[in-house]
Amino acid sequence: MHKIKIQGEIMKKIIAIALLALPMCAAADHLDVIDFKLKEGCDFAKMMQITKDFNAQWGANYGYHAEVAVPLQSSDLESMRWLGRSKDAATFGKAWDVWRAESADPTTVAGKLNARFNECANNTARRGFDVY
């Protein structure tokens, strides 16, 4: 009986260690952050419509979803942030390859969206993050 109790305690410790190790093995989301300033003649409502159209017409097909962050407290109160999220860096990379190839072609969905972005905003910085 004593031997079974010891084996049970050892098994509990092994399971606890395994459960604690799981979060370290989990894949990270990828966060694509683009700082931008609106151009004259483009307002927040127009940028939000472009973002909504991007998510529905292009992002949903490539596992990418975007939001726009407006600063309340920041060292740069003039720039907004495009926050694009993918399930991992590999998914982002595949989407980026397609976007880069298609966005220069004005007949594609990406090309039409890119033209709208360029009419509305100037990008000032871009960063990528793994988010756990």
Strand content: 25-35%
User: Which structural class fits the helix and strand makeup?
Assistant: alpha+beta
| CA gyration radius, whole angstroms | 22 Å
CA distance, first residue to last residue? 43 Å
Mean pLDDT: 90
Question: Number of helical runs?
Answer: 4
Low-confidence stretches: none
Oligomer: single chain
The percent range for helix content is 40-55%
How many strands?
Answer: 4
What is the topology, as strand order, of the major beta sheet? 2-3-1-4
Q: What form results from the Cα inertia axes?
A: elongated
Major sheet details: 4 strands, antiparallel
Report the order of strands and helices: HEHEEHHE
Task: Explain what the structure shows.
The protein has 4 helices and 4 strands. The mean pLDDT is 90. The two termini are 43 Å apart. The protein has a 4-stranded antiparallel β-sheet. The chain has helices at 2-25, 44-57, 89-102, 109-120; strands spanning 29-38, 64-69, 80-86, 121-131. α2 (44-57) runs antiparallel to α4 (109-120). It is 48% helix and 26% strand. With 132 residues, the chain is an alpha+beta fold. The longest helix is centred in the N-terminal third of the chain and has 24 residues, at 2-25.
